[in-house]
Structure to design on (99 residues):
């Protein structure tokens, strides 16, 4: 399982690479609303500072999580560039070695 915060962080990193790849490209795509649907398991700690953590269940592992409650959630994320109200543009190869 992966923490939900890590999934969002990894998504952000992938999108940032796509934005950088779009620089200087003639054809670009405006990045709109992103919907992310995941299966999550909840973990509640029993300490004095009780905290709930969301774990994303990997594909195919949901059946093995019989003892843990899993829920499907959909997150709607609206990307924005820091310091501006503009949405980012993405295009081009994901890595510099791709053609």
């Amino acid at each position: 399982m992966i923490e939900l915060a890590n999934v969002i962080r990894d998504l952000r990193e992938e999108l940032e690479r796509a934005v950088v790849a779009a620089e200087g490209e003639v054809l670009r795509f405006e990045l709109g609303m992103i919907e992310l649907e995941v299966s999550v398991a909840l973990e509640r700690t029993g300490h004095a500072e009780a905290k709930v953590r969301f774990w994303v269940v990997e594909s195919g592992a949901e059946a093995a999580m019989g003892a843990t409650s899993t829920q499907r959630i959909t997150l709607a994320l609206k990307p924005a560039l820091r310091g501006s109200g503009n949405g980012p543009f993405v295009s081009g190869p994901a890595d510099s070695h791709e053609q």
Summary: The chain has one domain: 2-90.
